[in-house]
Design a protein that fits this description.
Layout lengths: L9 H7 L1 H35 L9 H59 L38
Helix pairs in contact: 1-2, 2-3
Length: about 160
């Protein structure tokens, strides 16, 4: 597409290619992880500042109580950043899985159609040919004897 085209979107090209999508999402994830580290540092500094801010007449835990809502807000922000990074990973995986599913759809449809045809027109099963009958060998065969000493015949008993 031409970059002068008013309908051209650079993300359209990225969205059409699963590898490009994965690279783009990995870049965004790296950026978010960097922002997350900065937010963690900021949250620690805010925690120290807010807990150290005392007003005359405060009891020892009043500053801590005033700092809790601020700390909780930053904790929620950090949790949301982590959730977004996990969502980016999941999105990249789902995008690749979608392309694989699309690629396999034609093959699966052919298999289903063949199975449907087999069910509609079952072929008559041919009986398996019976194994050829072996000619009975004489009783004096070496392998025809008893299997144990308890199976001895009268002529062989002691």
């Amino acid at each position: 597409m031409n970059s002068n085209d008013p309908n051209h979107s650079p993300l359209r090209d990225v969205a059409q290619n699963p590898e490009a999508t994965a690279r783009y999402l990995a870049d965004v994830q790296r950026w978010l992880l960097d922002v997350g580290r900065n937010l963690e540092t900021l949250a620690q500094e805010i925690r120290v500042h807010c807990r150290d801010t005392h007003v005359e007449g405060d009891r020892f835990y009043d500053a801590w109580l005033r700092a809790q809502p601020v700390e909780r807000a930053f904790k929620d922000v950090l949790k949301n950043v982590e959730a977004v990074t996990k969502g980016l990973e999941k999105g990249a995986y789902k995008r690749r899985a979608h392309d694989e599913a699309v690629a396999n759809t034609a093959r699966k449809r052919k298999e289903k159609e063949l199975e449907r045809q087999r069910r509609k027109n079952p072929q008559s099963l041919q009986a398996a040919p019976s194994p050829p009958q072996q000619v009975a060998q004489g009783q004096n065969s070496e392998h025809d004897g008893p299997g144990s000493i308890y199976d001895l015949r009268k002529e062989r008993s002691a």
